Amino acid sequence: MCTLEKRDGLFILTITGNDEHRLNPILIDSIRAALHRAKIESESMGPTALITTAQGKFFSNGYDLSWAFSDPDPVQVQAQTRSKLMSKKLRRLVSEFISFPMPTIAAVTGHASAAGFTLVLSHDYIVMRKDRGFLYMSELDIRMKIPTWFMQIVKSKIASPKVWREVILKATKIKAEMAVEWGIVDSAHDSAEEAVEAAARLGMELAKRNWDGKVYAENRKTVFADVMAALSSDETVGDTDCNDSHKAVSKL
């Protein structure tokens, strides 16, 4: 589902395969396992950074809704059991990115939609290819309410309310150059290879700053304290008991 390699002192996490990289428990757990490995291995390294990228046409096309709605037990479907599980696991993954002890860079080499767009925004920096791919918060077009925690990430990472309107209330498919203009993406590049190379250059520049990873993570958590608080619940899947859901997410 994903691989982790060390290249020039950086970690490269790649979501593998040519499918849509839908975020189901298997893929989310694979990404989390790679993050855990990078965190452990970084303890014996100098300052470093993590780059997340993907193979194929998609970075991630969002939640695996087909899996969520295909539970053979109608009672479980009614209770949104699978949707709750996906939401809890993704919220935990986002929490781990915010708590991660090194700078993170998303090298977006394909489409990133809905929850996939949220995953991109969970990184500190975003670089994107401009010859193919878009960022797309698709909830309005697919007649689904956007979770409050998605919106908190959007507000924390995108400065302009006018851009929030384009992203959420117009469901605009945002290509790389437009994303740079709107302050969503840091740089746009001619190909997937150039986007990853730009991410690597940025990662090496950040690593040279010789920051303490634990301090970096604590400062990031302070910056995004509102996001961390919002991750405790997801009203769109009926997970609204903040105290209980926070405990459940922390155990995943």
Automatic annotation (TrEMBL):
Example GO molecular function: delta(3)-delta(2)-enoyl-CoA isomerase activity
Query: Keywords of this protein's UniProt record, alphabetized?
Result: Isomerase, Lipid metabolism
GO-annotated biological processes: fatty acid beta-oxidation
Name the pathway: Lipid metabolism; fatty acid beta-oxidation
What's the EC number here? 5.3.3.8
Q: Name one GO cellular component term.
A: peroxisome
* UniProt-listed InterPro entries: ClpP/crotonase-like_dom_sf, Enoyl-CoA_hydra/iso
**Catalyzed reaction equations:** a (3E)-enoyl-CoA = a 4-saturated (2E)-enoyl-CoA; a (3Z)-enoyl-CoA = a 4-saturated (2E)-enoyl-CoA
Similarity annotation: Belongs to the enoyl-CoA hydratase/isomerase family.
Q: What is this protein called?
A: Delta(3)-Delta(2)-enoyl-CoA isomerase
Source species: Olea europaea subsp. europaea
